[in-house]
């Protein structure tokens, strides 16, 4: 496929790009290009009933119906692919590249693939023209088809395994730890005690991290930390999430009945890198969600978070030194299983990862399909 720079978009001039947020299906008269070198050929059929299938995070198949009249004259397809307007979308270097694709007229459905202009979990609009290349090199074109919408998919396990390999490369040596902890404001724990039967309840994960991660906005869980200070071997006294800390013995959440999954690897324009892991009790709803979606890790032999059993049945735990682990536990946790106390450190809000956007230019934590 090549990218001609002078083709007229089907959304111009009769559709304001800002109105595409509310566009579901636009049945409208197509416009022929008035650009130099683009002519009209009434005999060329207009694509109808556009169909998108086999959608992945960086590819899709497209097909359509056409009248038989003039079909034998078609030499090329023009595909106008645009990201839907979204003021909150991640910024990345190819965001504003016009993606007017020119493809030779191959049998349908045709696969459109390209990580540099397709991002995971992103809404796009697409319209199609048929074209006939003339002896002088110019094109004659049909009217544009209707405009339709589709959304690319999450990362597949293949892509997540690529992220996993990158994360393993920088995880560093393993350090011992004994507790998981969760920092929040005092009101959070009052709410758990008074309105939630003394339990912390799972909530839907926010959109922090990799844009294509299948857990964002879908997996329900409770975030915990386990990183320790190198010099003390204990949890740090500073936190970005609140001055009150729930602390629980590691074996309560992570034991021989707990499955562990890799969820994400990202950074936020800093030198720190984060790894998201999911702890799901065997057979739980969270475990069912993760199976087939996330790479499963060996409980006692991975590079990030391990639980090893000694001959006497006791458990020991280690965490990776050189990444910040964010651990999602998928089930409710009763406050009586641990303790709540005020920490003596500061709230370092700049370290918060709530809805944090991944740095799309980082070569350490990005893969070929984008953010």
From TrEMBL:
**Cross-referenced Pfam families, in alphabetical order?**
fn3 (PF00041), PHYHIP_C (PF19281)
InterPro entries registered for this protein in UniProt = FN3_dom, FN3_sf, Ig-like_fold, PHYHIP/PHYHIPL, PHYIP/PHIPL_C
Where does the Fibronectin type-III domain start and stop, copy by copy? 46-155
Question: Which GO CC annotations does the UniProt entry carry?
Answer: cytoplasm
- SUPFAM superfamilies according to UniProt: Fibronectin type III
Superkingdom per UniProt: Eukaryota
Q: Which family does it belong to?
A: Belongs to the PHYHIP family.
List, alphabetically, the PANTHER family matched: PHYTANOYL-COA HYDROXYLASE-INTERACTING PROTEIN-LIKE, PROTEIN CBG15099
Main function: May play a role in the development of the central system.
Protein name in UniProt: Fibronectin type-III domain-containing protein
Species classification: Eukaryota, Metazoa, Chordata, Craniata, Vertebrata
Recorded name of the encoding gene: LOC115377969
